[in-house]
Amino acid sequence: MKNIIKFGTDGWRATPKTGLSPENIMICAQSFSDYINSKYPDKKTILVGYDTRQDSLKFALISAKILISNNIEVKVTLNPTATPVCSHYIKNSSIIGGVIITASHNSKEWNGFKVRSENGTGFNNYEIEKIEERVRFYEKSNTSIKYNSQTNIDYLDINNEYINSIKRIIDIQKIINSDINISADYMHGASSGLLEKILEGKKINNIRKKYDPEFPGMIQPEPIEKNLGILIKDIKNNKRSIGIAFDGDGDRLGIIDEKGSIQTASEVFAILSNHILYKNKGKSIATTISMSSIIDDVCKEYKSKLIRTKVGFKYLAPLLENNEVIFAGEESGGYSLSNHVADKDGVLSALLYLECMVLNKNSPKILLDKIYQKHNKRFFNRIDINFSLSNKISIEEKIKNMEVFFSNYSKIIKIDKSDGKKLFFDNGSWILTRLSGTEPLIRIYNEAKSKDELEKINNLSQKFFHDYS
Known about the structure:
alpha/beta, Alpha-D-Glucose-1,6-Bisphosphate, Chain A, domain 3, TATA-Binding Protein, 6-stranded mixed β-sheet
């Protein structure tokens, strides 16, 4: 069966085996050009950015030349540039949209075509459908694609605007003047060097700073424990205060404490939310259905409303953009502020965390301990199971009927069907199962009030999907 181009929660991603090719990038770029020209009939400019992956620059230039061939002005980032930096520039300039060639945290064989609106956010479902309508057309008629290979390209360095904005949000000088000993793992990605530029004069130990499309020493450029052995070893051997890690396009954050232990994305979000709500009591926070229940307790403490959405930052972005919430974050490690950009930002989040440490004069471990002194500790994890696309329908049917299987574990007191299916049990545990919007994965999120209960529900989850693992 021919691989078709399908936009997920944040654009299109693929491998060479599933359709990644110059020809399909051309189809995406032409389809995006058609949509932009239909929405903005007058003169307009699009930003094209890219990450450090194999062929990212090549695909960025193909996209730029097609946009230009369709009478759209284009600026291409001078170097590999983090996605939040691109989003910030789009929002705060006359540029009316963007294309970013990236596969974010996916492994090296992946790449993608990410699109951004004039606000620097992802497009809504209606807009994505309009772009995909053109994709279906060009898949059948690619001779209609406009492409002038001799087009001249204009390049632009957009980092300074982003850095200046960060300095207006975060108390950078206090971080610089502190005695915090920082180790940063850039995972060979597009955010490499940004912390040093912002914390100018602050000594930072750099790990995997050099661009490398092979992403050696890790399964994929994602700041999760199995990929952070080098950073953990550095912290333990050199007594660092904190370890900070970013994914391939710089929109996700990972934190290692001073003892070399990773803090989950839910724990980091709780710490950052506590930091923000302490100064902004009563303001609302947003997160996704997959985030730990610890954030419910933090919001209750500050009499703040918590809004939960489907998985995907594009569902959180409008709440930030419209100032309905002051802060938002998702379970995968992406967070942002309403006065910054409505797109997840690993570097901003890292600096917020450092500011929290400095102002509270606490280490990462103590910050987390203080959260758990006030609120019940939860034990949370996510299991990913690869599946064949030929099994997708049967998996979806299995998810629809999962309460029959799990009712033997504990009494189900609530079911949430807003994104996949989430079962709440009377013992305080819950399980959420859904299919990823960006890759062929079954996502299983489990939470319990003890390690034993978490292990029990983990085992049941894997048994439930045994036929597909």
